[in-house]
Recover the amino acids of this structure.
């Protein structure tokens, strides 16, 4: 099964026309909406096994404090914190119109994992997945995400406005008060897929009368920190040197051995191979907004 094709329909055309160039609303014939059905989400909410930080709740004023929906539990005589209480979560969703965010769903939900792993392998990126359940009317701040984004609308509708990319390489994945003109303004319906290139500012608001549920697949892009980490790992691989050489001659010989090891390790390394490896390990310290 070609999961990327099910998201973008014509993969060569998508890569040629949209990838890293501009936002696009896609209408694939066979979207992968079955990876997380409404009943599946209800089961996750009501099952009682969701835990922080894999799940979080937000309202218009900001994050909901965990103590409001994660009372402590006793399990086999041990106190267990961070577990979402289904009743309290339902109250926040229905009465306070909170938004539920499920994070890194690819780590703990097998169908979503199959989707992200296949798309990530096809595009040579680390792929992570997030689910958002938003009540109509909730409007997110204009922000930039640290990676290319495929938004798969599962149920309900959501209006997206996408602005341009960052002006320089010093941008951060945070709210942006001056994102520039809107490039795409569209209501995304169930089965449709929205593509937002890396760093393009965007905002979204659930519309209609029912909650909006969408699955976001984030294809992380490498940063300088990932390049440094990958380079450091390559240089350190197989390195065994004495910690405290006894005299000047041994210290100089150790320095020569260190340089020789680095040269050998870098002999087959190209800039592209370093980028490719860094992209596969480009974990973010921040969840997608």
């Amino acid at each position: 099964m070609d999961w990327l094709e099910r998201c973008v329909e014509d993969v060569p055309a998508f890569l040629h026309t949209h990838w890293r160039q501009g936002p696009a609303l896609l209408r694939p014939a066979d979207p992968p909406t079955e990876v997380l059905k409404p009943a599946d989400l209800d089961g996750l909410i009501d099952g009682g096994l969701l835990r922080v930080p894999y799940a979080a709740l937000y309202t218009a004023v900001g994050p909901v404090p965990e103590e409001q929906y994660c009372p402590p539990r006793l399990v086999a005589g041990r106190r267990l914190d961070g577990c979402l209480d289904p009743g309290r979560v339902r109250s926040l969703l229905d009465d306070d119109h909170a938004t539920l965010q499920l994070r890194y769903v690819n780590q703990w939900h097998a169908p979503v994992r199959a989707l992200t792993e296949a798309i990530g392998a096809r595009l040579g990126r680390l792929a992570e997945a997030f689910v958002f359940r938003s009540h109509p009317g909730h409007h997110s701040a204009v922000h930039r995400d640290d990676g290319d984004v495929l938004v798969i609308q599962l149920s309900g509708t959501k209006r997206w406005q996408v602005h341009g990319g960052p002006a320089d390489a010093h941008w951060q994945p945070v709210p942006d008060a001056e994102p520039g003109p809107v490039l795409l303004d569209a209501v995304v319906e169930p089965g449709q897929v929205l593509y937002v290139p890396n760093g393009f500012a965007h905002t979204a608001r659930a519309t209609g009368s029912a909650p909006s549920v969408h699955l976001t697949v984030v294809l992380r892009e490498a940063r300088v920190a990932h390049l440094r980490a990958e380079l450091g790992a390559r240089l350190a691989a197989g390195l065994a040197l004495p910690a405290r050489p006894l005299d000047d001659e041994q210290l100089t010989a150790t320095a020569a051995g260190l340089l020789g090891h680095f040269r050998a390790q870098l002999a087959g390394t190209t800039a592209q191979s370093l980028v490719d490896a860094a992209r596969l390990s480009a974990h973010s310290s921040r969840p997608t907004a």
Notes: The longest strand covers residues 127-134. DSSP finds eight helices and 13 strands in the chain. Residues 139 and 178 are 17 Å apart (CA to CA). The domain at 3-219 is CATH 2.60.120.650 (Jelly Rolls).
